[in-house]
Design a protein that fits this description.
alpha/beta
Length: 155
């Protein structure tokens, strides 16, 4: 049962920042004494519970001109073998913020564009503001109350 295996470019970026190979191939390897076994490379871990976060369906917003430019969904972001220098994330929801955290920790200059007044719109406002503040300390830039109505290629 395969979870995730990082591509070489992303793995190299993680290791160069002292993060190690955190995305080795992980396999659910059965149960023993009421614990679940997870094999990760040559290591074997036992845990009481496993939380499978399989994500959600990708929604491509109806933005004029979007189909005429190169853009990433979460799938392309995870499949990329190279890190971009900069990344604009449209949407400050849970998935957008996960990608903002990941890519900024890899040294990518990240800008989150959100149409609501605050990121994580349905979450507690204090927690959302605190998270935004912590991400900003790490260099993530936020643009709130921005409704994107058109995309076009520059140059």
């Amino acid at each position: 049962f395969f979870f995730f295996q990082a591509e070489d470019g992303i793995r190299d970026a993680q290791e160069s920042r002292g993060l190690g190979d955190v995305y080795k191939r992980q396999i659910l390897d059965g149960e023993a004494d009421g614990n679940i076994r997870i094999r990760c490379g040559d290591e074997l871990f036992t845990v009481k519970n496993v939380l499978l976060c399989t994500g959600s369906e990708t929604v491509v917003p109806p933005i004029k001109g979007l189909s005429e430019v190169d853009y990433w969904t979460s799938r392309e972001a995870l499949d990329s073998k190279e890190l971009p220098q900069t990344l604009a994330i449209i949407g400050g929801g849970v998935i957008g913020m996960e990608f903002a955290s990941f890519f900024s920790s890899m040294g990518v200059k990240v800008k989150v564009i959100e149409m609501m007044p605050e990121i994580l719109g349905v979450m507690d406002k204090e927690i959302s503001a605190m998270l935004r503040s912590e991400y900003a300390k790490k260099g993530v830039e936020f643009l709130s109350l921005i409704h994107i109505c058109r995309c076009r290629r520059r140059g």
